[in-house]
Amino acid sequence: MNQFQLILLLLALVIFAIFFKQLFSGNHPKRGIDFESKIANDTIGGVSRPDKIFKKVEYQNQSKDRTQELLNIAKDALLKNDKSEAKKALQTILIREPDNIEALRVLGTIDLEENNLEDAKARFEKILEYSSSDDLTHNHLANTLHKLGIDDEAIRHHKIAIKLDENYAPYYFNYANTLYDLGQTKEALSLYKKALELDPSLKDAKKIVSEIENERD
Fold first, then answer.
1. Does residue 141 sit within a domain?
2. 118-139 pLDDT, tens digit each
3. Residue 214 CA, distance from chain mean position
4. How deeply is 19 buried, as exposed, middle or buried, from its count of CB atoms within 10 A (0-12, 13-18, 19+)?
5. Which of 207, 163, 157 is nearest to 178 (CA)?
């Protein structure tokens, strides 16, 4: 073996040594690791690395697409009355985006229907931290608080919901229900009639108005 061949052999050995050191060091990309869940809140790259900025934008778009996909899964599940599947999809969204208002609202509504009142209350209150003028959430929170027996606060949120949208009949109907339960029949009757004025198709309101008026006769 001449000197040149010896040099090539030594060089090859060095290259193999470096390769195997890198291979077993763990400093190489691994399959199956969820990159976005590990660094969802990290700032990636900067002005000096435009390639990183574009990767970040791509990640955000993918995140929005995935969120919409999960919302669609939840809505389809609810149409099939599969609340368990809907909750899984919505909870996945909230792991990724704790402030997603739509996911919080739908999940809170499911909690309210299933009588998980403290959970529903927490979700609706969280929405209002982000969006204090969300009239639908004020309405849901009012219904939840009434079921919890916190009626002064329930009435306050009923009034806010109506103030934010004075032409939505269900808000008057729900407020009337709360007052009726509290024995404030006269005030409730006025609100039921207002709800019917805005939406004459509310059969439950018609029935209750008829019952109250018959009791008075």
1. yes
2. 999 999 999 999 999 999 999 9
3. 44
4. exposed
5. 157
> 89: Cβ–Cβ under 8 A, 6 or more apart, which residues?
70, 71, 73, 74, 77
Instruction: Identify whether residues 127 and 210 lie together within a single domain.
Output: no
What's the token pair of residue 173? Answer: 């109907």
The answer to whether 73 and 92 are in contact (CB under 8 A) is: no
CA dist 95 and 9 (Å) reads 54
The helix/strand/coil state of 192 is helix
Host domain of residue 76: 59-166
Average pLDDT (79-86) is 93
**Residue 195: count of CB within 10 angstroms of its CB:** 26
CA 81 to the chain's CA centroid: 18
Q: Are residues 118 and 66 in the same domain?
A: yes
- Token pair recorded at residue 79: 């149409």
Q: What is the mean pLDDT of the chain?
A: 79
- Region for residue 32 given its phi and psi (left: phi exceeds 0; alpha: psi -120 to 50; beta: otherwise): left
Judge if 74 and 147 occupy the same domain. yes
Identity of residue 179: L
Amino acid at site 182: L
Nearest to 190, CA basis, from 203, 182, 179 = 179
Q: The whole model's pTM is what?
A: 0.68
Same domain, 135 and 216: no
Specify whether 74 is located in the same domain as 127: yes
137 and 158 within one domain:
yes
Which of 13-22, 54-63, 65-74 is least confident? 54-63
